[in-house]
Amino acid sequence: MTGGTSRNDDETRERITGRNIVILQKREGYRFSIDAVLLSEFVRLKRFDRAAELGSGSGVIALLLAERHRNVSITGLEIQYEMADMANRSAALNGFEKRTTFIAVDVRTVRKYCGVESFDVVFFNPPYRKSGSGRVNPQGHKATARHELHGTIDDFLEASAFLLKAKGRLYAIYPAKRAVALLTGLRKKGIEPKKLRFVHSFKESPASFVLVEAIKRGGEELRVEPPLIIYESPGVYAAEVGSIFNGKNVRNANGE
């Protein structure tokens, strides 16, 4: 990885609203959105956990978790070398480089780089759109983040099953309309869904996302949590989400 913490010409350096975190992002490429922040709030880490993020992108989820949990180590696996390098520089900017590391690895080849059952926790916010569905963004970073160009949900689950220890925990956020694919895929890989929480833009609107906690080799018992509502009214966060951003709107939360 490139040394130093400097910002390249095509990057911005921004402070995440409501958090003492500085992050580098591509000026024109993919920039994190609220689903990443919601997943960071959903993940539960224990003291001395070893955690892995699959498809870590800019590293925002790992960095938010590193701020909250001082006694864990997090490894981000990201197929794009440039993004992994940028995430490492963000980690250094925040003083997290000793316990948060990002490496350029394709999730489909984790067996070459990581030991079997070497992590207590795996989490991911994967590409949501199937390859060949919809318009693929011409910008490579955005296309990779949004479409399954370099790994399907099954690839992410296969990697998770390999990396997780027995009774290890998996956390994910995924489109509600593809929830069945995620849940059936988890069970096929021996990772039992244990907790679900659906995310709605407004109280009256259909669910947009689902947050899932699952346990490798866990027993059959599922808890469906109360829904998470993002907006109380257009442009105004509901209380729970508003507390994350101190009442700021999502555009400010993303540094845009």
Q: Which descriptors apply to this entry?
A:
8 helices, disordered C terminus, 256 residues, single chain, two-stranded antiparallel ribbon, 9-stranded mixed sheet, alpha/beta
Structure description:
The chain is an alpha/beta fold and 256 residues long. The chain has a domain at 11-188: Rossmann fold, CATH 3.40.50. It is built from eight helices and 13 strands. The strands form three sheets. Strands 3, 4, 5, 6, 7, 8, 9, 10 and 11 form a nine-stranded mixed beta sheet that branches. A two-stranded antiparallel ribbon has the order 1-2. Strands 12-13 form a two-stranded antiparallel ribbon. Strand 8 and strand 9 form a beta hairpin. Helix 1 packs parallel to helix 2.
